[in-house]
Prior knowledge:
The structure is a homodimer.
Chain A lengths: L2 H18 L3 H5 L9 H17 L17 H20 L9 E5 L5 E5 H25 L16
Antiparallel strand pairs in A: 1-2
Amino acid sequence: MLSLFKYNWQVREDWFTWCESLPEEEFHIERVGGMKSIRETLTHILDCELLWLNSLVDEKVVFERRQLLTQLNEIKEYSTFVQSFTEQFIEQLPSDYENNIIEVQRRDGSILEFTQKKIFAHMITHEIHHIGQLSVWAREIQRKPISSDLIIRIFE
Amino acid sequence: MLSLFKYNWQVREDWFTWCESLPEEEFHIERVGGMKSIRETLTHILDCELLWLNSLVDEKVVFERRQLLTQLNEIKEYSTFVQSFTEQFIEQLPSDYENNIIEVQRRDGSILEFTQKKIFAHMITHEIHHIGQLSVWAREIQRKPISSDLIIRIFE
């Protein structure tokens, strides 16, 4: 299942390249659904990857410029930062990680428990879901979306 | 990874229930992106699950009424049929299935080779991607979409 991170990073990178050819206002403009813009949806994907990875580690990492992100280039830097963190983490996983129980504290102080496998499954499916939203917006502005078809991709 | 089929089937069932509360024309109306309507996007998800499962078996199954599908109820019957086929198939998989090489013949007669693991990964991510599209359309008609968040779901 962890190879699906690689699939997601490849699709994400293709969307970044796709955004480069977009008139800048289309990147920022408010839309219906998702996180309301291409910019915010891509940023949200990264926020969630980082949030969940941080739930799995003792030494949490912070992207110092997180509150200052507005431009595509800055979001790409954020992606490089988050991806590098996730890559390092999954490369050193022990073979029996799947059923490890992770405690996650909610804002109200209560604790939820998830298996490490479930957290990874959520991180992966969360990104694919939001990328599906970008594909509708692409068609709305008469642009061909990035193909998400995993079967045509080489990523292992 | 195979547990993600269960996640998808649960989300799909929730979308079917969501569609029941929708004015019928909203189910059929042509939209931008995806497979151009809620009806056709749900049908496409099922077509693809069946197509890829059939690439893995000697005795292919056919849903006799496939060409006659127009109504939500009929698509739900198609989903029950496809899900049952997939469930039976994944329940009897040998433990070493992942790297089995599957030959898939394209329309032009050429043969592509994929691991069985890759085909399953494609089937799963394909559905999540298209469900993301439905969520944008839901907001376009001022309806709250089904949550796709895996972390809040219990499916194992």
